[in-house]
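Bench notes, bay 3.
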Amino acid sequence: MKSILVIEDNASNLMLTVDILQRADYSVLTATNAEDGIRTATEEFPDLILMDIQLPGTDGLTATHQLKDNPSTQHIPVIALTAHAMKGDEEKILSEGCDGYIAKPIRYKAFLETIRNFFETHPA
């Protein structure tokens, strides 16, 4: 079973994301800020990280840089999960080190399809 770490500070968004992923038979880890997310990633080594970009304290892009700079976590793909959906946001986020991009609000079927496609094109 693939494990996914969801780093999201909004309780409603976190619950929705976790529910969708668990119903699709993914093992889900959670964190509500970047510091806890980085700690969980370095202890649990999930197969994928879904990273909110606007987090309290350390933002998601800074956290992604820290994960990618750490030899023990740099192999873990990070998909930005963000409300930043304006023209150019996806390109900026990808250029900052994220391996993928999903805009909020989540569209259930498209969200799961993106996750499945990511695992198919990035086998562990």
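Next record in the batch:
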Amino acid sequence: MLAWLLWRLERIERIHQAARRLIGEYGDEAGAEARRRARDANSAEAAQDWKRVAAVIARRTTKRAALDAATAPTAVELDQVAEPTSIASDPPKAFRIQFFCATPDHSERNLTEREIEAQDTSAAIVAAANTEWPPRTIGLRILDREGREVFARQKASRG
């Protein structure tokens, strides 16, 4: 299960990186480029990934300016708007990310620790996946507010 989750997180990160790259290169036409790449893909899996990239781009680059201009309220409508209401949601929870390295006696030593706030364990894992690991780090642990380990990952050995 853990390997599957890590694979999914890495796949999501690759899709978001491809979306950022296309947005930077093609601007407003990035979605069209992603859809073209999906049509031209060599495999069904690659086509599905490009469709996901197109979906991410669509969420990030909607033509808000055109929509805002078309749906902008008039001064009369602004006077009739009630006070905004807040949407109740669970407050973020505190998590700690511990980065560790190996010692000569093959034990682990904590290099550094970062505190983060996230809605749940899944969001904390995503935040950890997007965090840059310090040098010499071989793994990380995510601890909840009570200090219980909720997730751990170690780099694959390269030997």
